[in-house]
Specification:
With about 190 residues, this protein is an alpha/beta fold. The chain is about 25% helix and about 30% strand. It has one domain (about 5-190): Rossmann fold, CATH 3.40.50.880. The structure holds glutamine (GLN).
Length: about 190
């Protein structure tokens, strides 16, 4: 399996480092053609407006929407979740592939970014918490009927799944617990934690 990492903007290098430690083959995706080569894709954190603009310039946005509708497994983190969300507050364009509403920067400014324990509902096995690094994170304010919530911070959904899309409003690439990346790339990956 070849895992793509969208590498137009944001913290794609941290995701690549996780894949390297899991010994998963990966490729950077910057063009529609590179997207066609991969079997799964990570959408990193960063700045969602800038990322979407760059994706449109590269003809990537439409191709990504096609591939996700065709079942491409995706892990979206932070700004990546905003890129996929159906509705965003304040309003901005998105790919509209996840049946959720999000509020950008809902947890306050950069100084309010924090590390917090995310309560896991199931799916990730015996451990019932995972460390969540929240950096100007979006808040998921509505989840559609097809969305499974499997991680919460206080009462808010922060880790969800809809079909082949896993979405985390925090940054699992910034801790050394790689369980969320393993959900994307499969249990067989590497010997990392
Ligand atoms: N606030 C950013 C946005 O709206 C997301 C922040 C992040 O990805 N860490 O794009």
């Amino acid at each position: 399996m070849l895992c793509g990492v969208l590498a137009l903007q944001g913290d794609w290098a941290a995701h690549a480092a996780v894949l390297r430690s899991l010994e998963v083959e990966f490729a950077y995706v910057r063009t529609a053609r590179e997207l066609d080569e991969v079997d799964a894709l990570i959408l990193p954190g960063g700045e969602s407006t800038a990322m979407l603009r760059l994706m449109e310039e590269e003809g990537l946005a439409a191709r990504l929407a096609d591939r996700v509708r065709g079942g491409l497994p995706v892990l979206a983190t932070c700004a990546g979740v905003i890129l996929l969300a159906g509705n965003i507050h304040p309003p901005q364009p998105s790919l509209g592939l996840l049946d959720i509403d999000v509020e950008r920067n809902a947890y306050g400014r950069q100084v309010h970014s924090r590390v917090a324990a995310v309560e896991l509902v199931d799916e990730l096995g015996a451990t019932d918490e995972i460390e969540g690094v929240f950096i100007r994170a979006p808040k998921i304010t509505r989840t559609g009927a097809d969305v499974i919530v499997f991680g919460r911070l206080d009462a808010d959904p922060v880790l969800i799944r809809q079909g082949g899309i896993i979405a985390a409003t925090f940054h699992p690439e910034l801790t050394d617990d790689h369980r969320i990346h393993r959900l994307l790339v499969g249990e067989g990956a590497g010997h990392g934690r």
